[in-house]
Each structure stands twice: as structure tokens, then as C-alpha cells.
């Protein structure tokens, strides 16, 4: 990526639609109502042979107080300062409004490279708006249609010379590095769980109910106000990812929209936000379920944690706003008891207390995330598993429905991430769920796999005997052979 491009403009001019067009996927939420985007979203854009970072921003509002629109504006201004190029998007059908002229003046002062694009410019109805865009004094406007993909060639022709200049600058500023391809003895390093790298960082999703403090927590982790926060519930709408070095581990953290009970989710936009959060859980490797210390383990909290477990993700439970809790010891004891009762399927999962506002407990949270990730990747040898299975059967034999005992013959680990095991047995359909839970709990305890989802599959071998029928077949062949000999003699 040689340069970064920030898409800025008033609300509802088509910034997120253009962002999705450039990254080639529907990453940003798009809706007819203005003000859908609130946070900064980054993506890897492709335009012809150009590769660059594109930033989707909140709509610029003419507000300077401490309101939500004003905080969104300050976040967008920060993106303008960060980006190499600003693409100023105006609505060609609506024409140039007074706010457009105010923001043009801001961009003229804060950005060295500004490109004006008149969006929604398909058809003759947009001609007047395109002409008006010349009056902004930022150069000749590009005629675009983000929805239909028109004007991309013109945008490419303007970005190409700027890209060459930024590529030359990046090459001149790049430090010399020594790359080590092997150790001193030339031996290969033993393969193990995937080690997070800059190219493939550890994927962590932070989920929870609205106003639990998810965005504040991520800002505390990365050490800057990257995500929009405030006292209002439901500020975050998109699942925004932020890449950082967390405790020496390259990590991509996904901030998600607060998930309310389905009965309360009526608006289309909130449904899209929740779907975006669920998709982030599916892409994550570790899921941090963030609870509010004042009202922990609400029904929705339990459903969110159960969702992460059903998706097979490593789970860490974090209790936020711990700095305002008075009876810490008693509350922590009660939390652990409630956790064991409410979420038995995640028994032993890390539970840590944090304060996103003060940053206290973040080191413990990072250690818990790495512990959960390590367990999620754990592998047990087949020999160990079968010796363990024999002991479990002797301690508690499987039931004998209708007088026929179920035989557990063989066990192996089929996968990791999460750990998945296969048991070959007779009559798997008759083995009760309670016995499977007995085996899963034993795996957790004996192989130190607390909290992680464990998949156990019972597979039947039937009563197939490889030697069954062979004697009869051999006897028939022998009889046929002796008959042929007798015929030759006669």
C-alpha cells in the first residue's frame, strides 16, 4: 500500500457505497438514511493496478460542541490529517450546499491533496450539480456514480501520478532490514499452533450489549481515541477492525455493534449492524464477551456468549467498569459462581475484570486472550487419548440399552481450532447425551482445556468383521478346484 485515501463529505452523499466499490466487497453498511457511518473504517482498495488504503468516514456535520455529530466530525478531521489524499464527495443531484463550501475551506487548509468528485452523476439531472462543483475552488471535479461504477477510469488517471510520487517517497524512507531465514544450525523450526504475524494477526472480536464499553476498551488497548465513544447507547454500527501490537502480539481487534434482544431490534439499520457483528464473531479466533459490572449476565449476555461457543471460538469473559465497583471481592466471587451456573458449556473459560476508562486490567485481559488461544489450538496424541478413554470407561462404563452394552473402541483428535474428537463405537445413536458430556468434561479436566468449545463426534463402525464369510468363500473355491482336478482325471 503506497498511499492512503480518505473519502469525506456531507452525510448521505455515497461515501460508503464508493468505499465498498473500491474494496470490492460490501464491508460498510449502506442505507438510504443519512448518518449511517460513524467510525473510521479502513480497507484495502484496488483500482486497476493501484493498491492503496481507503478510509470511509462519518458525514461531516457543521457542529463544534460535545454532541455526537461534533464528535463524529472531529474523528473525520483526524482521518483527513492522517490520509495522504482526500476525496471530497458531493451530491451532484442535490447540488452544492453551504455545508459543502464550509468543508471545502477546511480541506483546503488541512490536506495537501484534495480531489473533488460529484457522485450520483448518472443522467442529465446531475449536470447542474457537476458544474456547481467547479465553484468550490478545488480543481476540476470528477463525475462519478459509485452505485453503478461510472467514473472509475477518471479517478484512476488522477491517482496514478500521485501514487508514483508516494511510492518513490516510501522507497526512499524505507529502512534497511536484515531478514533471517533460518536458525544458526539450519534446522527447521518445529511446527505448532499458528503464530500471529503482521500479515496474519490474531483475530479478536469484542462483543456485548449496547453501552458495555466495547469501543472504549479497544481505544484503551491501542492507546488512542480511534473509535467513537460516548454516553449514548448504540453508537457503534459497523464492525470496525483495528490492527495493533498488543503485548508484543500482532492483533486485529473487531469492534461490534451492541446486540439487543431480537424482539427489540425493529429497525433495518440495527438488524444490519447486528448481522455485521455476528459475521465478525465468525471471522474471529478469540471472542471477548464484555459485560457491564453493574448488570452482568443478563439474558442477552448469555445468548452472546453461547453464540461464540456455538461458532467454535475461544471465549474470554471480561467484566468492565470494575473501577466503580465497591464490594470487589464479594462481587468477583458471585460472578464466578454465576458464570459456572449460567454457562456450563464454557466451564473454566477465563473471567477477568477490567476498567476501559482507566486502563486497569488490560494486561490480565491480554494474558487471558493468549491462554484461550493456546487452548483453542491444543492437540492431544492418539496414544494419550486411547489410554485416557480406557480409564474413563473403567471408571464409568457406557450404558447397555436393551441389554447390549455400547463398546467404545477407538478415539482420535480430528481437528483443532476448536479441538474436535472422534470416537469409534457400536450403536452411536443409542449413546445418551449425558455420557458425551461426561467425556467432554473429562477432556477439559485431564488435558487442561478449560473454557474452549470441544466437539465430540460418535461414529459407528457397525459389526463388520473383515474375516466374516471368508471361510465359506474359501471352502467353495476349494470344492471347485477339486472338481476340476477330478474332471481332468476322468
TrEMBL record:
Function: GTPase that plays an essential role in the late steps of ribosome biogenesis.
Domain of life: Bacteria
Name of the protein this chain belongs to: GTPase Der
An MF annotation (GO) of this entry: GTP binding
Pfam family of the protein (one): KH_dom-like
This protein's UniProt keywords: GTP-binding, Nucleotide-binding, Repeat, Ribosome biogenesis
Organism ancestry: Bacteria, Pseudomonadati, Pseudomonadota, Alphaproteobacteria, Rhodobacterales
UniProt xrefs under SUPFAM superfamilies: P-loop containing nucleoside triphosphate hydrolases
Binding site for GTP 1: 9-16, 56-60, 119-122
Comp. bias regions, Basic residues: 467-490
SUBUNIT field: Associates with the 50S ribosomal subunit.
InterPro entries xrefs: G_ENGA, GTP-bd, GTPase_Der, KH_dom-like, KH_dom-like_a/b, P-loop_NTPase, Small_GTP-bd
Protein family: Belongs to the TRAFAC class TrmE-Era-EngA-EngB-Septin-like GTPase superfamily. EngA (Der) GTPase family.
Keyword Repeat attributed: yes
All copies of domain EngA-type G, residue ranges: 3-167, 202-377
Alphabetical GO biological process terms: ribosome biogenesis
Record CDD domains: EngA1, EngA2
Chain sites annotated for binding GTP 2: 208-215, 255-259, 320-323
Chain residue ranges for the region called Disordered: 452-490
Origin species: Maliponia aquimaris
Record-linked PROSITE patterns: G_ENGA
